[in-house]
Write a structure and sequence with these properties.
Elements: E1 2-3, H1 14-25, H2 36-55, E2 63-66, H3 69-81, E3 89-92, H4 98-111, E4 114-117, H5 128-131, E5 139-143, H6 157-167, E6 172-176, E7 193-197, E8 208-212, H7 227-230, H8 238-274, E9 279-282, E10 293-298, H9 303-312, E11 315-316, H10 332-336, H11 341-345, E12 347-351, H12 358-376
Parallel strand pairs: 1-11, 3-4, 3-5, 5-6, 6-7
Antiparallel strand pairs: 2-8, 7-8, 9-10, 10-12
Length: 381
């Protein structure tokens, strides 16, 4: 099987699986308990928290562990809006992941706030020249994703942050980093809130974290036993956290090489398929997008039909976000950047991991070309 749907999820690497297994079978104590064995587990969790914080230029106490990207995004939106007073609007984009897009729609109704969509360029990035038009003194929350999960568009965090701080000084700035973290350069993040999901990084599913900067007014999420600074209660997911820690350490050790590997696979697949004809690149230029996401339209072919045709030959791809895969209708992300009609209908997302190879790109390209040619014979008149 050639798996090119790594933006949906990744395989858990051996190091993370073994660490999680040890946590489940040996270090299974609740770190909130009061005996010695539990203290040892708590120490491991705290070490993992400190390492995660170091990757985003944060303090350990600014890392709140969650169940993944969706919870982090939900908590970011509701946790920042609940304490707000006299702020009237939320700025976001029409290309956000559903866990931000739908959450903001719900929150805006609950808090009586207006949603304002930031203008986008044709490559899916925020139009920085026009961003100023939607930022005002009464803006309460700005939520813009770092890397788009369908197009691979990379937003300029520093430039966005500068505009937000200058024009909306009372706003909380959140960025969904699920597709960006460890896959594009970050350094110290110029944001108040940043969401991360472990299973996009060869760690177990069901764990992630939310960066919450000290000093912002934040109401948190789940109420209960007071874990995570009393901002996200719930029994600590030790196997998930320690599994994520091992995966992040592995990623950090290999980050430069892995970025290059993913980019080479992406570039090779694009070059191979470019010879097919009537293939359109959606989103940023190859060198400008994230190294692991490629979105192409095959004109004269329905994306969903092509997806299932490729699956029969062991090539796994997607037509967009896994969270929207079973929903009917137009693609909101492609609509937002002006892509419709046959080009939208024929769109396929390929997403890569460091363990994919150029040989897989060559093999997949041959299968894709054969299936596209076959399906085009049945193009509707």
């Amino acid at each position: 099987m050639i798996y090119f749907d790594n933006s949906a999820t990744t395989c858990t690497c051996r190091e993370a699986a073994e660490r999680a297994y040890t946590a489940m079978t040996q270090d299974y104590y609740n770190p909130a308990a009061a005996y010695g064995a539990a203290f040892g587990v708590e120490k491991q969790v705290n070490e993992a928290r400190a390492f995660a914080a170091s990757l985003v230029g944060a303090k350990p106490e600014e890392i709140l562990y969650t169940s993944g990207g969706t919870e982090s995004n939900n908590m970011a939106v509701f946790g920042s809006l609940r304490p707000m007073r006299n702020l009237k609007s939320i700025v976001t984009t029409e290309t956000e992941h559903p866990s931000v897009y739908e959450t903001i729609r719900t929150a805006a109704k609950e808090f009586g706030m207006e949603i304002v969509y930031a203008p986008l360029k044709a490559d899916g990035t925020v139009d920085l020249d026009r961003l100023s038009d939607v930022l005002h003194a009464d803006t309460g929350l700005v939520s813009i994703m770092h890397v788009n999960n369908e197009l691979g568009s990379v937003n300029d965090l520093d430039a966005i942050a500068r505009k937000v701080r200058a024009l909306s000084p009372n706003a909380v700035l959140h960025m969904d980093g699920v597709q960006a973290f460890m896959k594009v350069p970050t350094g110290k993040l110029p944001v108040d809130l940043y969401s991360v999901s472990a299973h996009k990084l060869h760690a177990p599913k069901g764990v992630g974290f939310l960066l919450v900067r000290n000093g912002i007014r934040f109401a948190g999420g789940q109420i209960g036993g007071g874990q995570e600074r009393n901002l996200r209660s719930g029994t600590t997911n030790v196997p998930g956290i320690l599994g994520m820690d091992s995966a992040l350490r592995l990623y950090q050790s290999n980050q430069r090489v892995w970025h290059q590997q993913m980019f080479q696979v992406k570039k090779r697949l694009y070059e191979n398929l470019g010879t097919l004809g009537d293939v359109c690149l959606n989103g940023p230029a190859i060198e400008e997008g994230a190294p692991h996401i490629l979105n192409l339209s095959f004109l004269g072919v329905r994306g969903e039909v092509l997806l299932h045709a490729l699956e029969r030959y062991g090539v796994i791809v997607s037509t967009g976000s896994a969270c929207s895969a079973k929903k009917q209708g137009k693609n909101r992300v492609l609509n937002a950047i002006g892509i419709g009609g046959a080009r939208q209908e024929g769109a396929i997302r390929f997403s890569f991991c460091p363990f994919n190879t150029v040989a897989e790109a060559d093999e997949a390209a041959n299968v894709i070309a054969d299936q596209v040619r076959m399906l085009r014979k049945y193009k509707r008149r």
